[in-house]
Amino acid sequence: MSTPAPLIIGTRRIEVLPQPKRADRFSCLGCSILWGISLQSISVFNNKGGVGKTTLTFHLAHALAELGKRTLIVDLDPQCNLTIFALNDETIWEMWSAEDDYIDDFNSAREKDPKGFQAMLEEPRSIHFVLKPSEDGTAEIPQLSPPVKLAKNLHLLPGRLTLHLYEDKIASRWSDVYQGDPLAIRTVTRSRWIAEEYARQYDYDVVIFDTSPSLGALNKAVISLVDGFLIPCNPDMFSLYGIRNIGNSLSIWKKQFETIFHLLSNEKKSQFPEEFVRFLGFTIYNARRYSGSNDWDLAGAHFNFAQQIPATVRKYIKKEVRSHLSPSQLAEPIGSTSVMHSHSTLPSMAQKYHLPIWKVPSCVSLEKSDRSTIAGNRAIYEGTREKYYDFARDVLERLETLDA
After folding, report:
1. pLDDT tens digit sequence for 257-272
2. Sheet holding 228-233, edge to edge
3. Is 161 helix (H, G, I), strand (E, B) or coil?
């Protein structure tokens, strides 16, 4: 098999991973059991937009990878902000353009050009391309396309703006899940199955799903079926209401899944995880620092709202979803204050160069207009590494409580 051509991120050439050389690489096409791999899947979610969710997810993933955890990011936000953060526009355009006919009518495009279809599978594809056979109710693809390699231990399944079409199918088929309809079950559970299958082939330790702020059908299917989720917050009333909305929705979703489990056969239930999603905690992200004003160095009004977050969590997120966490883990932000305070323009530079903040000063393709500013603040940029490491370590500790 020839080596795939590299993709370009920023001005960097990156490796496109070849398909795993395993005779059994797709033998588990219809099952949801992950043989021999300990995988943990998480979602970073808030019903309130503008809380830095995508920036936090991107940096968390890089931190986990640098701490030795093989990590996959799946961009299931139809806005594709994570994909835009990670890849340059040309790469995204070329990927999406090649997929257009398949998104329009997957089976017709596949039958029209079998050799071209096989070539498509040898290069990275968007998550919507991989999900499309389930959406259309046609035969699944014979192999998974390789993910995009972002860094050592870190890969990406890019998003696509057309993903709202898949959400429409989840919504329209949801009631059929209660009847045990195979296509409906496949549609609802497919994102988790894909994560498990990629983990089986590429040995991931953690899969992170990036999602939209919506409480719609797609997020119901994604968030309910991951192992754990965390909530990034701004210290304001909107995040408090966001937590209330999440908690109320989780209660409804949990009852729906309990009904589904009661009605389905054991074989069909095996396509779902054994337990409903559980809460990993909250973090306050990218808030302005006011040194010495209080324990969290926040403005008085912000600190007042921040102090209400734990009580809001306890009131609106049911105990069975959070009982594995200790009282201190419920009361304290994930990573304490490690990522709490504003990074100023650093995240914008990170997005511009498609790198985590701490790697920006070492980027070989810095524009001339940015070099002096970045060089003068090199220690600040690089100092964020340990802060995100602390945050990532706390996420891992909280994930361990799920198995306690």
Report:
1. 999 989 999 999 989 9
2. 148-151, 154-157, 71-75, 206-210, 40-44, 228-233, 278-284
3. helix
Mean pLDDT of 275-286: 93
Give the mean model confidence (pLDDT) for residues 75-93. 95
- Output the average pLDDT for the chain: 90
Cα separation, 16 vs 22, whole angstroms: 18
Give the span between the Cα atoms of 148 and 158, in whole angstroms.
Answer: 8
DSSP code for 287? B
Buried b or exposed e, range 147-177, using 16+ CB within 10 angstroms: bbbbbebbbbbbbbebbebbbebbeebbeeb
Q: Which 8-state DSSP code applies to residue 194?
A: H
Strand (E) or helix (H) holding 233: strand 228-233
Quote the tokens at residue 126: 């968007």
Q: What is the pLDDT of residues 105-126, one digit of tens each?
A: 999 999 999 999 999 999 999 9
In 15-70, where do the E strands start and end? 40-44
pLDDT of 254 > 70? The answer is yes
The C-alpha atoms of residue 15 and residue 159 are separated, in whole angstroms, by 19
Cα dihedral across residues 102, 82, 230, 247: positive or negative:
negative
All structural domains of the chain with their residue ranges: 34-398
Residue 37 has pLDDT above 80, yes or no: no
Look up residue 15 and give its two tokens: 């490796």
Average pLDDT over residues 113-140: 97
Cα(201)–Cα(23) distance, rounded to whole angstroms? Answer: 11
What residues contact 289, with CB distance under 8 A and at least 6 apart? 297, 298, 341, 342
The CA R_g of the chain, rounded to the nearest whole Å, is 21
**Residue 335's beta-bridge partner residues?**
none
**Quick check: 23 pLDDT over 60?**
no
- In CATH terms, the superfamily for domain 34-398 is P-loop containing nucleotide triphosphate hydrolases (3.40.50.300)
Question: What is the average pLDDT across 45-57?
Answer: 86
Instruction: For tokens 């409804």, name the residue.
Output: 252
173 contacts 167 by C-beta, under 8 angstroms: no
Place of tokens 């305070």: 341
